[in-house]
Amino acid sequence: MTKTTLNVNQQRYELNLLPWVSLLDALREHLKLTGTKKGCDHGQCGACTIICDGKRILSCMTLAVMKNDSEITTIEGISDGESLHPIQQAFIDHDAFQCGYCTPGQICSAIGMLKEGHAHTREEVQELMSGNICRCGANVGIIDAIMQVKDGGTHE
Amino acid sequence: MNNFEYKQATNIHDALDLVNQKPDAVFIAGGTNLIDLWKYDLTHPSQLIDINHIPENDEISIQKDGKIRLGAAVKNADTAYHPLIEQKYPLLSRAILAGASAQIRNMASNGGNLLQRTRCYYFYDPDVPCNKRNPGSGCPAKAGYNRIHAILGTSDACIAVFPSDMCIALAALDATVNVSGPNGNRSIPFASFHRLPDNRPDLDNTLEQGEIITSIDLPQDDFSENYSYLKLRDRHSYAFALVSVATAFKLNGNTIELARIALGGVAHKPWRNIEAEEFLKNKEANAENFSAAADMILKGAKGFGHNDFKISLAKKAIIRNGLMALNPSSQLPGAQPSA
Questions:
Q1: Which residues contact B316 (CB under 8 A, 6 or more apart)?
Q2: CB pairs under 8 A, 24+ apart, for A84-88?
Q3: What's this model's pTM, rounded to 2 decimal places?
Q4: What's B281's domain CATH number?
Q5: Nearest chain B Cα distance for residue A129, angstroms
Q6: Which of B211, B248, B260, B276 sits at a 20 to 30 Å CA gap from B41?
Q7: What's the mean pLDDT in A55-81?
Q8: Is residue B193 part of a domain?
């Protein structure tokens, strides 16, 4: 067992973890934060995207013990109490999901992308969101939602 | 999947000592390929040595001789968006951004990019033979479904391709790989870092047991004026290359003074042909000469059925990317839409 401290959504957790536990399983199975989804578990679908030390990463391809002391934000930590994050509201406004399974990853990825600041056009947003797959085909709504927040400048 | 121990190295000596004590230990940086291989039960490390906490490997710096040094632990995204790289080595920046997804580029390290393994589906399927995974067992890809496989430098033992985009640009730029090992430090020219399969497809590169990549040096020739990275794939983003081309020129007017052309998706390593690059010297930069160079590069190319199309695709890609390199301002990351 390796003693691991994870700071998730501004709460500090001390965990004793075996080294092969993924960050995704630590969040879901140990901390019961099941908003982050396990899709492919192989880094292909983006459903497990979380924000770690300011960068969006895939929690399924990350060992939890390697993120000792990191600052992690999951879908559970992005709203301000009952007040939705602008990206969450925009997803509702644009009907940006159907089954909803990819949505937590899409939203965390979108927040990370806007923070990174490299997407300027719709095409660049599409390119930089390509790591999040939506099998229902809500992609047009997803990009519309992100563009609304990006152009409205309400992502800070 | 096997269990493993986990250790952190905080300096290079630590890392080398740890791997020396346990020869089947494996270094982990981003883990984007290693964790996947481990989950598929294709690699069985007894111990992972975390090399993300070695400060000297985690920076991009200018050396005394003017070379730019990329730390092995620096993330692919941080490299691609670094102002020095964007300005001086835009070919490298574009190639990195054509690869993987934003999340993976945030995780994957520069050293790890060089060490990623093939995406040959037979390599990933433990129920079938594969000379790369299990030497001597055979290669089902040759007579199988080989649409993504190699057309150049293949051997009877293996027709897998090396999947990196970043490394195609590093090959074109003539980068150098700096490594540390039990016998000290050495520098490996990029062209000698990866290898062709021959009869040892289990070996992807020329690193020796216990060696670790510490950094990658970029020569002063930055080709920041005329360059292009063209990646052709089944979907517009987040897919491996069927064929990719990194092209860089030094031009005098429309005359080529220096040409570099490296191909991805076609061989077991980034593919360059010095003869073709020499041929282009002092020639006009036009489609006719690019076509002649493409014929030289693709001489001896051999398809295996499903991948025959790559030979003509590669020729067209070399010509088109040569023309795109004349006007880099119009390029997007990845493939430029056809006019």
A1: none
A2: A85/A111, A86/A149, A86/A152, A86/A154, A86/A155, A87/A111, A87/A114, A87/A145, A87/A146, A87/A149, A87/A155
A3: 0.97
A4: 3.30.390.50
A5: 7
A6: B211
A7: 98
A8: no
Q: Which of residues 34-93 of B touch A (CB under 8 A)?
A: 35-36, 38-40, 48, 50, 52, 77, 81
Residue B179 included in any domain = no
CA distance A132 to chain B (A): 9
Question: Looking up tokens 């998706």, which residue turns up?
Answer: B265
Give chain B's domain count.
2
Low-confidence stretches of chain B (pLDDT < 70) are: 330-339
Which of B44, B103, B106, B121 to substitute to test the interface with A, most A CBs within 10 Å? B103
Q: What is the CATH number for B39?
A: 3.30.43.10
Largest CA distance in chain B: 60
Residue B207: DSSP 8-state: P
The question of ipTM being above 0.90 is answered as yes
Q: Look up the domain containing B297 and give its range.
A: 226-335
The crossing angle, in degrees rounded to 10, of helices A86-93 and A139-152 is 130
Q: How far is A74 from chain B (nearest CA, A)?
A: 14
